[in-house]
């Protein structure tokens, strides 16, 4: 798989997109990927096996039109390019100086294992769903995130997923430098998602089976204010914890002192009782 800083984003994006497909489409996609990679492994030097044409009806139906299909091949190292002879294609570059041929083939096999595991998870999600309603994909919830560019991206989620999972997915469409400043806004109420809401499930927030959220970037001023607020909250929390610890220690000391005094009282009463009996 890719070795860049963006690698994890590529695979998270791919996984969420694959969840939007039916089990049947995923099974067909997996079989197609196996055949493509098997051909490359058997004859790595033949260019035609490393090129997938958008114009090929089978490739278009089993790869291009699958949600996450193109993204998966991008994760393997394929690039979408315009070929003078074949038009738009997915091509695995044979001139990648950063990776040897054995490394490229190993990368493809690791990617295949990832896909098998991911599709297995999608299948489990689809069969374990308790919604009782029919749906076209494996996901229980389709979340549409509208980006600042005006583009919209969809991802598949389960009812028990939390809002921070959507934020993490939205961050995949921003650069690493800006992903930490991504914020979500609930569309109907136009309420910005706070840290407290990030731990709420999609079902709790009423975002199932379909919802639209807006993603934007904090300005530098807003970002600094947010960091300052978080710092203050952490400081207050730490101060509160220290006060609580001190209170608990004082309570224990008071309890021990009270116990000591009670023992002394009982012992004194016992001695007085014995003295009077004599």
Q: Point out poorly predicted stretches.
A: none
| Total count of helical runs of at least 4 residues | 8
According to DSSP, the number of beta strands is 8
**Overall radius of gyration:** 30 Å
Instruction: Bin the helical content.
Output: 40-55%
Which class do the helix and strand fractions yield?
A: alpha+beta
Report, as a whole number of angstroms, the end-to-end distance: 93 Å
Give the helices and strands as they follow along the chain.
HHEHHEEHEEHHEEEH
The strand order across the widest sheet is 5-4-8-6-7
- Give the oligomeric state: single chain
- Averaged pLDDT, please? 83
Strand content: 15-25%
What profile does the largest beta sheet have? 5 strands, mixed
List the helices and strands and how they pair.
Layout (H helix, E strand, L loop, with lengths): L6 H12 L4 H20 L8 E3 L3 H8 L4 H8 L1 E6 L3 E6 L8 H28 L12 E6 L5 E6 L5 H9 L4 H4 L2 E5 L4 E2 L17 E8 L2 H58 L1
Task: Give a verbal description of the structure.
The chain has 278 residues and is α+β, with helices and mostly antiparallel strands. Helices cover 53% and strands 15% of the residues. The protein has eight helices and eight strands, in the order ααβααββαββααβββα. The strands form two sheets. Strands 5-4-8-6-7 form a five-stranded mixed β-sheet.
């Amino acid at each position: 798989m890719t070795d860049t800083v963006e690698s994890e984003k590529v695979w998270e994006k791919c996984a969420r997109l694959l969840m939007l497909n039916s089990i049947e489409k995923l099974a067909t996609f997996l079989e197609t990927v196996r055949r493509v990679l098997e051909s490359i492994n058997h004859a790595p030097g033949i260019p035609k096996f490393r090129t997938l044409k958008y114009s090929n009806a089978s490739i278009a139906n089993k790869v291009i039109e699958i949600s996450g299909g193109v993204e998966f091949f991008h994760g393997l190292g394929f690039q979408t390019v315009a070929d003078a002879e074949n038009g738009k294609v997915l091509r695995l570059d044979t001139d990648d100086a950063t990776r040897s041929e054995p490394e490229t083939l190993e990368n493809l096999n690791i990617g295949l294992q990832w896909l098998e595991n991911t599709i297995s998870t999608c299948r489990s999600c689809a069969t374990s769903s308790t919604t009782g309603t029919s749906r076209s994909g494996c996901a229980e919830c389709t979340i549409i995130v509208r980006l600042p560019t005006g583009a919209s991206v969809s991802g598949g989620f389960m009812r028990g997923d939390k809002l921070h999972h959507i934020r993490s997915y939205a961050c995949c469409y921003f650069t690493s430098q800006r992903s930490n400043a991504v914020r979500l806004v609930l569309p109907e109420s136009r309420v910005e998602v706070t840290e407290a809401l990030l731990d709420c499930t999609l079902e709790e927030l009423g975002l199932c089976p379909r919802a639209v959220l807006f993603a934007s970037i904090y300005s530098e001023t807003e970002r600094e204010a947010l960091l300052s607020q978080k710092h203050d909250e952490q400081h207050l929390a730490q101060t509160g914890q220290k006060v609580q610890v001190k209170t608990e220690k004082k309570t224990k000391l008071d309890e021990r002192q009270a116990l000591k005094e009670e023992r002394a009282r009982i012992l004194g009463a016992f001695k007085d009782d014995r003295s009077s009996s004599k």
